[in-house]
Specification:
This protein is α/β, with parallel strands linked by helices. It contains eleven helices and nine strands.
């Protein structure tokens, strides 16, 4: 079922909520792929009803060209979801439905978790994400919301957002879904040629190498090896960072009993791709 207005969504969900059904939300910007389906299937393990929102949020883009080129095909997405699971509710609001008080981004104090990586290279991105999710959570009133770990920094920021705004929704992360080459599934992959999709496996290879080296090599040594891989490739590395999982602050030293993750952003042509992996 495709629902375009908040009023229609509220009427539809009210019936489910009166029957004590657990509501889950999977927020997306469309251009749906197998990774989204895995996320939806994961959500159904926890929820009776799953709402998939499709909304390209202007406030989280700091690059106008990226916003303009972002793939949009709502009708194809709706058919894709219906074929996969016909009981999924698809919410496709316009900008006015979401930003009733005007299109603007609010500012949030996320702390150190957004100071680096995406926060450093995409100014205002997380404020834009927070602005739209605060509104979507208020519209849908889900019990649980689901996000892929490919955007791990975003996942942690959303958990922080819920604490800041005191919204009653549980935020749950889902493991990254990858294609046959190991490349993390992303809507931006639709802009890649078959050759580029194969070249993109370097990102997964680099993270896997960092993981295999982590116990025996220093962080600077690992960073040098990852940088060397990209210097010999068609991809342009924007950043590779190893961070403590608890605060997402880049580090060059290892401490016992601490968890670490590696994060990568790289350009394949004019398409920007990100990924991350737990290292220990």
């Amino acid at each position: 079922m495709v629902i375009k207005s908040k009023e229609s969504l509220h009427k539809t969900l009210e019936i489910r909520k009166n029957k004590k059904k657990t509501i889950g939300l999977v927020p997306t910007m469309g251009a749906l792929h197998e990774g989204h389906l895995a996320l939806i299937d994961f959500a159904y393990k926890f929820c009776d009803v799953v709402v998939v929102s499709i909304f390209v949020n202007p406030t989280q883009f700091n690059n106008t060209s990226d916003l303009e080129k972002y793939p949009r095909h709502v009708e194809k997405d709706a058919a894709f979801l219906k074929k996969h699971n016909s009981k999924t509710l698809v919410f496709t609001p316009n900008v006015e439905e979401v930003y009733t008080d005007g299109l603007k981004s609010e500012s949030y104090n996320f702390g150190s978790i957004v100071d680096h990586m995406e926060g450093e290279f995409r100014a205002g991105h997380f404020d834009g994400v927070g602005s739209v999710l605060k509104r979507l959570f208020a519209i849908v009133s889900p019990d649980k919301a689901f996000f892929g770990e490919k955007d791990y920094q975003q996942l942690i920021a959303v958990k922080t957002l819920v604490n800041i705004t005191r919204q009653k929704v549980e935020v749950i992360g889902c493991p990254t879904h990858r294609n046959e080459f190991g490349l993390a599934q992303s809507s931006r992959n639709f802009r890649l040629s078959d050759t580029q999709l194969k070249e993109g496996e370097l990102i997964f290879e680099a993270l896997s190498q960092a993981k295999s080296m982590f116990d025996d090599y220093s962080i600077p040594d690992i960073e040098r090896e990852v940088n060397k891989k990209f210097q010999q490739s068609t991809l342009k590395l924007e950043y590779f960072s190893i961070v403590k999982t608890k605060d997402l602050i880049p580090t060059t030293t290892k401490e016992p009993k601490e968890a670490y993750r590696g994060f990568i952003a790289a350009f394949l042509g004019d398409v920007r791709l990100i990924d991350n992996m737990a290292l220990n």
